[in-house]
């Protein structure tokens, strides 16, 4: 009997071991849950990586616990986790997932699922985390009532799910007592209707960014109904918040992360509010309209690590209080109005922590560059677009961890040596462009870095091609434009260009030819304009290019052979500028190969023949320059398919036929239409009046006949304030940047052709000169009150000048010469105060030239050839002017008496002048001659005045000189 307890102990131990072994054994998944997963797989129609290939009915796939992304409970076999993020899965989320009632974690984020979220997800009562965010905005959810079935949920992410109809979303969130993380960014949340339901007390992270929430809708819920005692992370960026930053934020004493960037917040940063949020680590207020100075309150926020106040209107100096932020890692203050001088001991406390400093696009000045040698962890430095005007310090070379250096667009000068940059082994982005720096690098000096992007535009690198660039094997972008290079492009550059995305060597004196490489790199952007390159353009350059500017060189030959090369870039060629060369032959017939073109500029060449109808396949084209060639024939009607066109310049060719009427109807977005110096005939179509956005209309020097349409008043862009600039942005794939392009055109302005680019938007002009137009100037033209230039000269116009022409108050140029206009010059024309060019010559105008400073300031040639005109500035007097000689002969004695009286008055007048001079001169000078003490005091006073005037003038001139230099 005494051995039985021992036997019981042994049996119990064996049973316990067996139980543990059973617990350790793998248990197969529950069949019902397995079927639910297979039904979910049926809804997945796209599995790019084959992630669900392990799911199936095969003998080796029966255990769903072994499937990719599935995790089961070891004891019971229930599915407790489905984790399939970022696998590029596509399809619909079916209701079968509601069968997985033991599921604790569901993550299908960052895929491409679409459709309506099934409310059966509310059956997952054990769910603790649900992440369906970032599915490309393709999923929708009508309401969030089903969330009430998830009482244990702690983490919820529905970012990019369309919740625009989920009106009761705040109430649904308030009913989740254990929720700690809520992500609803970019969900199109509707306006909050205030509810008095109990709110959650446990939320730690709240992200409502990227919605259209307003201050009046979100603040009451956030501050009054929502418990904020535990909130650590708050993101309200990219909404429509306006007004000042509320003082209520000061109650969020536990906040460590606050993002209010890219809203419409105004006013100053409240000092008291941020004094109380002492735990704040990350603060983002960029992209608002905040102004004033940066408060000293930041000095009390010792935990701050990241501060972004960029893209506001802050002014004043960078506060010295930032020196005390010893944990600061990122300080971003770009795109403000900050000024003052960067001191040499800038941010001394954060020397060992600062990783990124962005002060670009401000007004910071300095005669000495700040000493940054102590910033041992600095990785990114942006000080571009300021007013720094000293030399580049060698201390830059001591920033061993520097990866990005951008000091572009300052006034730096002096010599750049290898010691400045070549020791920065981690540098991958270098931008010193638009300074007055001169590189002095010997042939045997090699940089330790392998940069991806180098921008040295307007720095002095030449005359030889920089040899040290030969060592850069990982370059993706290079800009050495306007750098004084007078050399040929070395072979090593063409050998290493295979991985490049951008090359800009424009505005140099580079000579030679382009090689016919087997393959230029994909997604290539190349600007080699304004050089001395010659020869033919190789066909292979068109193969992968997306941006190609070879203008202002001396290339010759034909480009028709490019039709044999198909552009293989998935982006396609969007920008092609071959203008101002010596290219010849006919235009290509294969425009369909370049269907992605936005800008096509072949102006100022020797192209001949007709414009091929395949040009109508360029549906995305916005700009077409074909001016100054030898093109003939009519405009192809297929061009009307290019409905996105904003600018068409076909001037100085030999195009003929009637001016197409479809231009007004099909190309309604036109801003510039230049057809000057061609051979178009017929009348001006009434359909042209449908160009409501047109700002420059030039049909001059053609053979147009008929009358000027009265419907010109419908050209509303010329009657309304505001103007459009012809520009677009193009994404350069390899550089991951956007290049901005601003269009230009040649405008006949004040008698000569001038190129207009950014100021093209200031021109609102009509030029119908040198045609065969007849009839009167339509009174309706006066409705175009924003016109700057009107030229109707060298036609056969008759009738009178409209009496109300003075309403065109913004006219700077008016030419009505060489017509058959008659009648008088309207008095109202003197009201056009800004008129700088006026030509009314060679008409049959008559009468007196209206009096007015403006009209009399023009030369007589303005009015010559009008025999009936009289009055200044013409020498011809008008009949109603007084003629003194005739008055004498007819007035007899009375006239002579008047003359005698006038002579007497003249005697008294001149006598008084002489008397006044004598008294004034001798009254002062005589006194000084007689009294020596007065004379001494007087000349001493003049000496002082001379000295004061000299000092004042010198100081003023120095100030002006410094302002011009900066």
Count helical runs: 11
Query: How much helix is in the residues?
Result: 10-25%
| Major sheet size, sense and barrel closure | 31 strands, mixed
User: What radius of gyration results from the CA coordinates?
Assistant: 40 Å
First-last Cα distance: 107 Å
Number of DSSP E strands:
62
Overall structural class, as computed from helix and strand content, comes to alpha/beta
**Quaternary arrangement of the chains shown?**
single chain
Question: What do the pLDDT scores average to?
Answer: 85
What overall form do the CA principal axes indicate?
globular
Give the low-confidence spans.
Answer: 16-25, 732-736, 884-898
- DSSP strand content: 15-25%
Give a brief description:
Helices cover 16% and strands 22% of the residues.
What are the main properties of this structure?
966 residues; alpha/beta; 31-stranded mixed beta sheet; 62 strands; globular
Q: Could you please describe the fold and organization of this structure?
A:
Strand 2 (70-72) and strand 3 (79-83) form a beta hairpin. This protein is globular. The strands form nine sheets. It has a 31-stranded mixed β-sheet, with no helix packed on it. It has an eleven-stranded parallel β-sheet with strand order 33-35-37-39-41-43-45-47-49-55-57, with no helix packed on it. Strands 13-15-17-19-21 form a five-stranded parallel β-sheet, with no helix packed on it. The protein starts with a helix and ends with a helix. The longest helix is centred in the last third of the chain and has 47 residues, at 884-930. 16% of the residues lie in helices and 22% in strands. It has eleven helices and 62 strands. It has 966 residues and is of the alpha/beta class.
């Amino acid at each position: 009997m005494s051995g039985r307890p021992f036997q019981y102990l042994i049996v119990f131990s064996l049973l316990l071991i067996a139980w543990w072994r059973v617990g350790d054994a793998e248990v197969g998944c529950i069949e019902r849950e397995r079927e639910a997963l297979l039904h979910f797989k049926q809804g997945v129609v796209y599995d790019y990586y084959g992630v669900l290939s392990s799911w199936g009915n095969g003998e080796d796939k029966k255990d769903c616990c072994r499937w990719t992304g599935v995790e089961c409970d070891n004891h019971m076999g229930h599915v407790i986790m489905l984790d399939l993020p970022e696998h590029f899965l596509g399809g619909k989320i079916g209701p079968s997932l509601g069968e997985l009632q033991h599921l604790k974690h569901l993550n299908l984020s960052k895929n491409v699922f679409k459709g309506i979220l099934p409310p059966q997800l509310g059956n997952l009562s054990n769910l603790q985390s649900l992440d369906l965010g970032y599915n490309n905005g393709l999923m929708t959810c009508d309401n969030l009532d089903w969330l009430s079935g998830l009482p244990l949920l702690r983490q919820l992410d529905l970012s990019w799910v369309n919740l625009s109809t989920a009106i009761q979303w705040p109430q649904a969130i308030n009913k989740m007592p254990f929720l700690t993380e809520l992500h609803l960014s970019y969900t199109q949340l509707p306006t909050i209707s205030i509810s008095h339901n109990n709110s959650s007390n446990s939320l730690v992270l709240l992200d409502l960014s990227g919605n259209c929430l307003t201050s009046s809708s979100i603040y009451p819920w956030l501050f009054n109904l929502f418990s904020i005692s535990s909130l650590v992370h708050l993101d309200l960026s990219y909404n429509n918040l306006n007004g000042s930053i509320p003082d209520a934020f000061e109650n969020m004493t536990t906040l460590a992360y606050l993002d209010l960037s890219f809203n419409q917040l105004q006013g100053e940063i409240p000092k008291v509010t941020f004094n109380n949020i002492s735990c704040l680590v990350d603060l983002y207020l960029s992209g608002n309209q905040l102004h004033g100075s940066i408060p000293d309150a930041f000095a009390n926020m010792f935990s701050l690590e990241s501060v972004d106040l960029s893209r506001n209107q802050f002014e004043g100096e960078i506060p010295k209080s930032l020196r005390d932020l010893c944990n600061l890692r990122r300080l971003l203050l770009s795109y403000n109005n900050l000024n003052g001088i960067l001191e040499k001991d800038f941010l001394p406390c954060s020397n060992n922590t600062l990783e990124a400093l962005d002060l670009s696009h401000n007004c910071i000045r300095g005669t000495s560059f700040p000493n940054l040698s102590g910033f041992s962890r600095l990785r990114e430095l942006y000080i571009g677009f300021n007013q720094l005007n000293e030399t580049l310090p060698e201390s830059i070379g001591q920033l061993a961890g520097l990866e990005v250096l951008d000091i572009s667009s300052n006034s730096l000068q002096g010599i750049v040596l290898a010691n400045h940059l070549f020791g920065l082994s981690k540098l991958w982005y270098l931008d010193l462009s638009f300074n007055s720096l001169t590189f002095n690098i010997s042939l045997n000096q090699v940089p330790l870095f392998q940069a991806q992007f180098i921008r040295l535009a307007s720095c002095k690198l030449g005359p030889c091609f920089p040899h040290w660039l030969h060592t850069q094997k990982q370059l993706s972008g290079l800009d050495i434009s306007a750098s004084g290079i007078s050399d040929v492009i070395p072979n090593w550059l063409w050998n290493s260009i295979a991985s490049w995305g951008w090359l800009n060597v424009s505005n140099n004196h580079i000579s030679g030819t382009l090689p016919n490489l087997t393959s230029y790199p994909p997604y290539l952007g190349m600007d080699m304009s304004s050089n001395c390159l010659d020869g033919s353009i190789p066909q292979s350059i068109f193969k992968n290019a997306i941006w190609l500017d070879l203008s202002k060189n001396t290339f010759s030959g034909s480009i028709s052979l490019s039709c044999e090369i198909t552009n293989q870039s998935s982006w396609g060629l969007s920008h092609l500028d071959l203008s101002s060369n010596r290219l010849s032959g006919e235009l290509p017939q294969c425009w369909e190969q370049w269907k992605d073109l936005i800008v096509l500029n072949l102006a100022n060449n020797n192209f001949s023949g007709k414009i091929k109808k395949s040009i109508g396949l360029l549906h995305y084209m916005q700009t077409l320059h074909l001016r100054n060639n030898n093109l003939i024939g009519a405009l192809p009607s297929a061009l009307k398919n290019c409905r996105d066109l904003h600018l068409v310049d076909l001037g100085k060719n030999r195009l003929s036929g009637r001016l197409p009427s479809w231009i007004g109807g099909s190309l309604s977005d036109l801003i510039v239409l230049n057809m000057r110096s061609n051979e178009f005939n017929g009348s001006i179509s009434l359909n042209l009046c449908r160009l409501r956005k047109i700002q420059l209309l030039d049909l001059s020097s053609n053979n147009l006949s008929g009358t000027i349409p009265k419907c010109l008043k419908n050209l509303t862009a010329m009657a309304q304030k505001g103007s459009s600039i012809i520009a677009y942005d193009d994404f350069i794939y390899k550089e991951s940047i956007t290049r901005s392009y601003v269009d230009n055109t040649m405008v006949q302005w004040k008698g000569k052709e001038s190129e207009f680019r950014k100021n093209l938007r200031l021109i609102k002009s009509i030029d119908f000169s040198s045609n065969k137009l007849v009839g009167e100037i339509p009174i309706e033209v006066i409705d175009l009150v924003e016109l700057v230039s009107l030229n109707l000269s060298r036609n056969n116009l008759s009738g009178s000048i409209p009496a109300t022409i003075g309403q065109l108050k913004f006219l700077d140029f008016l030419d009505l010469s060489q017509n058959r206009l008659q009648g008088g010059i309207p008095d109202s024309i003197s009201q056009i105060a800004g008129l700088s060019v006026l030509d009314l010559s060679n008409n049959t105008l008559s009468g007196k030239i209206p009096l007015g400073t403006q009209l009399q300031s023009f030369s007589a040639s303005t009015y010559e050839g009008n025999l009936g005109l009289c009055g200044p500035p013409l020498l011809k007097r008008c009949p109603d002017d007084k003629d003194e000689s005739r008055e004498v002969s007819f007035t007899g004695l009375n006239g002579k008496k008047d003359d005698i009286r006038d002579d007497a008055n003249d005697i008294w007048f001149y006598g008084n002048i002489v008397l006044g001079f004598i008294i004034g001169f001798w009254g002062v000078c005589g006194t000084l001659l007689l009294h020596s003490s007065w004379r001494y005091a007087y000349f001493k006073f003049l000496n002082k005045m001379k000295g004061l005037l000299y000092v004042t003038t010198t100081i003023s001139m120095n100030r002006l000189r410094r302002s011009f230099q900066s």
